């Protein structure tokens, strides 16, 4: 089978991860247990996950000319990702994500740094690449105008675009119309479609809107009925990157021509495996692991 060709337009950051038994309240200081730096950023995570699942992946992004930037570039290369459009920019630091792992979940503050230089003009430079892909993926740690430009470019070229609207911010009707797949989690859904009934929103976007509900699975409307494709129970170590793994696996399966239900099940399995190890990319599975996991 030919490998699907996927471009990821998005963020590449270094994750600075603290583990602690207790999450500090505002104004409180607590003592933590460990500190680690690991590659992250929603775009980079999705690129790495898709590559491990067998896609030919091209990263379109920016990092600084600093140690974190060098480490991220090295990480892309060791995961077999094409980096012709991964620019190391002067005068801007590599993005960082400041993560607290406590009480069974994470909280994250992202400082975008060089990710803000993934501009519409930069995406236009990668136009020929994007037009040659089976699928493009994008998230929201790059500027809003970049998402709009990528949506227009993909729509015009007839290339499916998967928009993972994370972190949440309003997305215009025009952009929603131009993307093929939209994958908010529950919180992002509430913020994007404020005050609207979830089932009505799902009905408005059949086979386009996929709401990820963590351990419960993923919900969508198939044109006839609302469906919940259930997730797989596992022992969770770290949920960071689970959404990225879901998106990458879903995108990879779709780009391979698999149908929606099969793609969603594949994505749920990949995401469930990803949470069994520390770090956003630490538990991202290989294709063989997902296929084996689907048989269990
Ligand atoms: O989705 C997980 C990612 O979000 C982390 O790797 C961190 O970089 C934040 O951007």
UniProtKB/TrEMBL annotation:
It is an enzyme of class 2 (transferase). The active site is at 244 (proton acceptor). One of its GO terms (biological process) is D-ribose catabolic process. CDD domains: ribokinase. One of its GO terms (cellular component) is cytosol. Pfam families: PfkB. It comes from the Bacteria. This is Ribokinase. It comes from Halobacillus trueperi. The lineage of its organism: Bacteria, Bacillati, Bacillota, Bacilli, Bacillales. The gene is rbsK.
């Amino acid at each position: 089978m030919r490998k699907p060709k996927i471009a990821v337009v998005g963020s590449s950051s270094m994750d600075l991860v603290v583990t602690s038994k207790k999450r500090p309240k505002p104004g409180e200081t607590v003592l933590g247990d460990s500190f680690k730096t690991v590659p992250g950023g929603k775009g980079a995570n999705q690129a790495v996950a898709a590559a491990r699942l067998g896609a030919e992946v091209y990263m379109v992004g920016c990092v600084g000319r600093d140690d974190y930037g060098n480490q991220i570039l090295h990480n892309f290369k060791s995961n077999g990702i094409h980096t012709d459009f991964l620019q190391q920019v002067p005068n801007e630091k590599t993005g960082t994500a400041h993560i607290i792992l406590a009480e069974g979940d994470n909280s994250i503050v992202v400082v975008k740094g060089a990710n803000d230089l993934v501009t519409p003009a930069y995406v236009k430079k990668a136009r020929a690449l994007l037009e040659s892909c089976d699928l493009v993926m994008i998230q929201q740690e790059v500027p809003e105008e970049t998402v709009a430009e990528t949506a227009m470019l993909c729509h015009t070229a007839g290339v499916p675009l998967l928009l993972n609207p994370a972190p949440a911010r309003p997305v215009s009707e025009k952009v929603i119309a131009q993307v093929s797949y939209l994958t908010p989690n529950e919180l992002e859904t509430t913020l994007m479609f404020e005050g609207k009934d979830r089932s009505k929103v799902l009905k408005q976007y059949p086979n386009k809107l996929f709401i990820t509900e963590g351990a419960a699975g993923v919900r969508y409307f198939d044109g006839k009925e609302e469906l919940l494709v259930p997730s797989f129970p596992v022992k969770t170590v770290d949920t960071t990157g689970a959404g990225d793994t879901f998106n990458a696996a879903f995108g990879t399966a779709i780009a391979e021509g698999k149908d929606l239900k099969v793609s969603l099940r594949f994505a749920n399995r990949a995401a469930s495996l990803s949470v069994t190890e520390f770090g956003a990319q630490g538990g991202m599975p290989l294709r063989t692991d997902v296929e084996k996991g689907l048989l269990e």
